[in-house]
Design a protein that fits this description.
249 residues; alpha/beta; 8-stranded parallel beta sheet; 9 helices; 8 strands; 16% strand; globular; disordered N terminus
């Protein structure tokens, strides 16, 4: 494949990405209206895993600031090549040994959405303190589908973990809950309703209003339903950027 062809395909993907972003916002507005909610209560995180910096830049240039990545190696390679006012969300499973590279390498990381046990919360808390950055917003990831392949704390443990983050991790800001529904979307409404129930329990225990506790739920295949069921943060990848491009093994 020659360079001109690659450049042309990247450019057409970028144009498609910007058009797709506009279409996503229209769909978010419609879903919010249907649910009697204000669309400015819902954040769209453009999930750019496996996508090149040039494509992210085009979507940024169209006025979008919130981007998400699943892999530490990818985000620490991409973030320095992109504008500093991008608000990065880390949404993948995070291992303890990757916490320092992530926080040191991405000063404009605004949120880690995947805190699923006390160990990772403590590690984040310690590293944020050590490098002297402002408190980091975190979401507690809840496994609402009961699948063993999914990360996340059991629903019965979400109050305990949220309490630990809020009371024992002074360099973290507990900001809400996140879940990934079933891949085939069969039980998605139940998954999302369960996360909303977890939020009610957490807010009651911590004495905070529910509107101060985010619900990160909904991806390309189910974000409209998630908005109807109260999501404040939808994570949209393939609908904006096209199918993922994994390297061939």
């Amino acid at each position: 494949m020659n360079k001109e062809h690659v450049a042309d395909s990247t450019m057409s993907a970028a144009i498609d990405g910007v058009a797709a972003l506009r279409s996503v916002f229209q769909r978010v507005n419609q879903a919010a209206e249907k649910a009697g909610r204000m669309s400015d209560q819902i954040r769209v995180v453009a999930v750019s895993k496996t996508k090149p910096v040039s494509l992210i830049r085009q979507v940024y240039d169209a006025g979008h600031k919130s981007f998400g990545e699943n892999y530490v190696q990818e985000i620490i390679e991409k973030a320095p090549q992109l504008p500093e006012d991008i608000e990065w969300h880390f949404i993948g499973n995070l291992q303890s040994n990757k916490v320092k590279p992530l926080l040191s390498g991405v000063p404009n990381l605004v949120m880690v959405e995947s805190v699923d046990d006390e160990k990772i919360a403590n590690m984040l808390d310690r590293v944020v303190g050590n490098i002297g950055r402002k408190p980091l917003k975190v979401l507690v990831q809840v496994n609402t589908s009961g699948e063993e392949s999914k990360f996340g704390v059991e629903p019965s443990g979400c109050v305990g973990l949220a309490k630990h983050v809020k009371e024992a991790c002074l360099n973290l800001e507990f900001s809400g809950l996140m879940t990934i529904g079933m891949v085939d979307y069969t039980s998605t409404p139940e998954n999302f309703k369960l996360l909303a129930k977890c939020r009610s329990e957490v807010c009651k225990e911590l004495g905070i209003p529910e509107e101060q506790c985010e619900l990160s739920m909904g991806m390309s295949g189910d974000f409209e339903l998630a908005i109807e069921l109260g999501s404040t943060n939808v994570r949209i990848g393939s609908t904006i950027f096209g199918a993922r491009e994994y390297p061939k093994k």
